[in-house]
Structures are given as structure tokens and as C-alpha cells.
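Quick board copy: two proteins, each given as sequence then C-alpha cells.
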Amino acid sequence: MSATMPSPVGPGIVSVPLSAHFPTRPGWQCEVCAQPWPCPTRQAEFTTAIDAGVGQGVALLLASSLGRASLDRPDIGADRLHEQFLGWINADLYSRMIGGRPASRVSA
């Protein structure tokens, strides 16, 4: 199974293929590799999507997933869920995510 990240409508529409590394609920583990979701494979795919210019879509997906996980797993503290869903995003990736610019246009 594969999917694509949503992309802006208009010129330069971006389609980023995704693997089958989707979360299972209510545990929020990857259904393929059983690691906490987003697993390393999905993190790499999200990074590709961010670099393709659809970082704001990735941000919305992660935020909504974090919200659902907090309802599914009230036994897990907010700090642990934050680390699971957002802890892998470093400052550079975050900047590219919210800027919505492809990596090739980001100045060093």
C-alpha cells in the first residue's frame, strides 16, 4: 500500500510517495516495523516531503496525530508523546517545515 502527501493546488503540485509505514491505533506503533510511530522510515519520508515544499502539511499531520494519540493513550505523558511525534525534528528541519520551501531554495 502506498499513499501520497497532500500538496498545494496549483502550479508546481508536489506528490510524495509514502510507504506502508502507517500507525496502528491505539498503540501508535508502526504497522510494518512495530517501532513507535513515526518510525525512522516514515521520518525519512516526511523529511523528503518537507524538502519538496509540503512541510506545512507534514506539520498538520503530525499535530493531529499527536492529538489523537493523547486521546488514545492517556497513560502516556505529554512529554513522552511530544518526543515520539516531534522529537526527531531538529531546528534546521523545523525551519524548512514551516517555511514551506524546498531544501534547494534554503540558504545556509
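And the next:
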Amino acid sequence: MEVNLYFQYRLTDNISVLGAKGGTLGTNAAQLTHLVRYCYENNISFLDLNDSDFFNFIEHLKYGKKKLSKHCIKIRTDANILAIGRLCLDFLSYLGKKHFMEDFVSESGCIHGKRQKNKRTNRKYGECWHHGALPLPQPTQYRSAISDDYISELYAATNAIFKKHDSGTFQEQYIRERRKIMLTLLEITGGRRQEIALLDISDIHFRSDKTHPHVVLRTLKHINKNEFRVVPISDMDASAIDTFIKAYRAKLFKIYKGKFIDDNALLSSSTTGKRLSENTITQEISILARFAGIDAQCCPHMFRHKAIIKWVANILHRYQLSSSDDFEQGLISIDGLKTSILQLTGQKSLASLNHYIGNALTQLKNGIYPLSNIEIDLIQIDGIKRLLNYGQDVDGNPLTDLDIAKAILPHLRELNSTGRGSLKLP
């Protein structure tokens, strides 16, 4: 009962409930079960807990029931223990106030917890709970961006998996093409895995007289649950997505008409027709990475890091900004730049971009983006480069020069005809 009341209260903070496991609310519920289980096993109510009990609870989190006197091995990381402990302190404080025990969790209360400033400046709320039993916060460790070589190997694996087993059923063809589109979406949108899973067919907008191709992503981790952002994409990527929808996805639901319910999801299961979950996207990347023989970490969020670094690098180059200070000053002085970069990345604050700037500057110094000197649409160039780097036929063989020429010449001509290119074409 008390737990239900607490989460009803948390819902007023507009925390996320999206995803297969209930978003942030589901994560918090799983974290709080540790305290519920501890109190049940020790036959003690929440409001009867004292400071010594909380110390014992944190020790239980660290080592579990099998704590050895000589060799104590932690079963959880300090970061996990800190997150669980802070949530439990917040829950107990809420419970105390509901029962008119305002100081139940305080420096002089039954449990000696206190609120202190959170040193992470990219969070809106600058305070968090702390207690003497909790481990000290550690510096944030960021995932690295995925490399171009790894992306190329993942694309190659989409074909090679079924080629190796000499399989060619339609379901296998569908899975192969779905994996390619999944990789493309992760790469070009910089979307979080759940944002990619939530994409509907109607979120893909193709070129028209009024608009350029773009993807509309639902932005997660924001207070406003109905916040969306627009990410422009190349004509070639839009064409690939369109082909997948019409030639593969539509056929899947035609074959299983009456068995599958079409919920308009862009990425659907080949066995149930249901929308892929964010965990399935992670599993798909893991399957491809294993098959490709990639031993290093390889996960969906690394695509997001790569995309943001690329966007930041383009801004730095376009406006001739050579340092983090220049970047911050540029966001202030250049009209609309701050809004556009936050809208593109889906970040809450500019402080979230700080750790990307150094990587972007390094890439520019190494000459990673020489094409940005040419007055041509970089989004279209990225689409063409993707075909050149990862282009394969259905059997996994590299596309011929003629295949590539037929694919890219119409798009290059379109760039020139709209005044966005400066290449001489036949």
C-alpha cells in the first residue's frame, strides 16, 4: 500500500513510464523491491527502521546473504547501490511525512539521511539524498562512440548470417532488411534505443514539395511526455526505408493477415507482428556483433554518441569554433543555434554536450570531415557514403560500380538542381 502511494506521488513528477519495463517508473519499482524484501525477511515495518537497520540494508545490497568474513565480494556496483539507496531514502522520507514524521529521514532523525547538492550540473534538480552507509559518487563514465569499422562489420553481418546457413525464407529476408534499417536509423537519427522502437510508419516523412525527408522522434527523458523532435535524413536513406516498408513490412502483414495486428510500428517482430522492444534492439546488435567477431562493447547507445559527435563537429567546423569555450560562446551569440542543437539531440541541457566537444575537436583535427569544405548538403553526402561503405546486394556481395552509379547519380543531380551542390555531373 505504501509503495503504491509513493509511485502515485512520483507520477506527478512526470517520470517516464514508456518501454517494455515501464520506463523510469519500472526501474524505480525494481530498485525499491530490495527494501521491501529486506523488511519482509526481517519482519520489520518501514517506519520502524532505524539508522542501524539502514546500514545493514546497504551491507545486504553490497554482499547479499552470503557475506564471508574474510573474502567479501560485492554483488553490485557502487553506482547501483547508490541509486537504490537514494531511492529508498526518498521513499522513507515520503512515508515519514505522510505519517506526520517530518524528521524521519534527516540528519537528526531515525535515519540519518540528508539532502545535498548534486555535483552533476546537467541535471535540472540540483539536490539528492545521501547517507553515511552509501558509497561516494564516482565520476560519470561515458560510453565511447561506435567506430565506422564496427558499423561496417555490423552491416556485413546482416547478410552473412543467413548466407552462411544458406537460408532464404521470406521471414529471414525480412529480418535481414529490418536489421539494416534498424542500424541505419540508429546511425542517422542519434535516437535512443526506445525512441527507435517507438517509431511508427507515419513518423517517416519523405520528400515533398514543401519538406525534405525527415524522421520525427518522440523525445524521452523530458518532463513533457508529448515532446517530439525532427531529424533530417538523406533522400537515399529515406528511399531505403520506403523500400523496406513497401517491399518487406507490407508483405509480412499480408502473409499473416488475420494473425498479426498491425499497430503501425516501423520495426515489427517477424513472429508476432508486435512492435520490437528496446531490449530486442539491444539483443539484435549483440547478435550481429557476435557474428561479426567484435569483442569490444557494441550497443545501441554508442550510435547515439557517434551521431552527436558528428553534429557537434559540423557546428564547430561551420562556425570556425576551435575550443569548448568557443562552442559555448557560439551557442550564445549565434541566433537559434542553441535551440537547434538541443532539438536535434534531444538533450535536456547544453551541459550534456560537454563531453562530446573534445571528441568532435579531435575528429576535426584528424581531418575526418574533409567534405564539409564543399558547399554541398552533408546529410545527402552521409547517405551516399553509407551506400558506398555498406552497400551490398541481397547475397552479401559488394554492389558493382554500375549499381552504385545508378543509385547515387539521381541524388547528386537533385543536389545541383536545387543549388545545394557544386559538382559537375554527366
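Board note added afterward: The chain has two domains: 2-130, 148-365.
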